[in-house]
Write a structure and sequence with these properties.
Order of helices and strands: HHHHHHHHHHHHH
Radius of gyration: 24 Å
Largest sheet: none
Strand content: under 5%
Shape: globular
Structural class: mainly alpha
Number of helices: 13
Distance between the termini: 44 Å
Helix content: 55-70%
Length: 279
């Protein structure tokens, strides 16, 4: 018995040691980025061996970045575009996924297969047709132009369809017996039942929209509409690639994503949608 307990403790110690090492390797680039952003101009950021802890930590790099470029405007643009993209993406994906999961009509499965098949198409292939369509719609140099390719996604439709399928039919039948309309059933019953999937999709869409660089670079020429990734790229050229300032700008850019994830991670848990069904 004691031998088994001792072996169990060793297994736990080895497991946590491996997980800790993997976590450290994963977080090291972020820690290095923070360290570089906090180092003063007198410190050598490229010294060997590298020094992770700044000898003279300072927040001056953040102040320089914030005052030299309109980062407040960049932050506003990124926040507005990302939040609107998330809201519209959830709406359109949920509207498309619900009939593919819960309604019966001719060609339903083939439509779903066609939608999912588009996941294999790289964005670079459809980028030129998307840009031409954006120009024809007059969306160049607009917030809507940046959001246009992300208003719906095949992955989002697939994710929400699978979540809708997992909702017990008894809940749907009970709502229909109470006289609920199809739209009311979708809004009041089905959407709350798949909240974890909605939150998961919202995080993916937000991160993708927030960090998108290529598409805003193509459709935006007005610097007043720049998002944070474009602002960080401009930052690198403005200061002749001063890595301290680039690191500070990058920290400003990724901080909202980390805060969003920390706030929403408690919602990404399984929900017992069938708990209200008693047999």
């Amino acid at each position: 018995m004691k031998l088994q307990l001792k072996n169990s403790r060793w297994q736990i110690l080895i497991t946590y040691s491996l997980l800790g090492a993997i976590a450290l390797i994963t977080l090291f680039p972020l820690l290095w980025l923070i360290s570089t952003a906090l180092k003063s101009p007198t410190e050598n950021i490229l010294q060997s061996p590298p020094q992770l802890l700044p000898s003279q930590p300072t927040l001056g790099n953040f102040a320089t970045v914030w005052q030299s470029l309109p980062f407040a405007q960049y932050l506003y643009n990124s926040t507005l575009v990302s939040l609107l993209t998330v809201g519209l993406n959830l709406l359109f994906c949920a509207l498309a996924a619900y009939p593919l999961a819960r309604l019966s009509f001719p060609g339903r499965d083939w439509i779903f297969i066609a939608i999912v098949s588009t996941i294999m198409i790289p964005f670079q292939i459809v980028m030129i047709p998307l840009y031409i369509l954006t120009v024809q719609l007059g969306l160049v140099n607009t917030y809507w132009g940046m959001m246009f390719p992300s208003l719906a996604s095949a992955f989002g439709i697939f994710l929400l369809r699978q979540a809708f399928i997992g909702v017990p039919k008894e809940i749907e039948e009970a709502a229909r017996m109470d006289g609920s309309s199809e739209l009311g059933l979708w809004w009041h019953i089905m959407l709350p039942a798949i909240r974890p999937a909605l939150v998961t999709l919202a995080i993916f869409v937000f991160i993708g929209s927030w960090s998108d660089f290529l598409w805003p670079l193509i459709v935006i020429q007005d610097e007043k509409l720049y998002t944070l990734p474009l602002g960080v790229a401009k930052l690198a050229g403005t200061f002749s690639l001063d890595w301290r300032l680039v690191a500070a700008g990058s920290i400003i850019s990724i901080a909202p994503v980390l805060i969003l994830f920390l706030f929403l991670q408690r919602y990404i848990v399984p929900t017992e949608t069938g708990s209200g069904v008693k047999g």
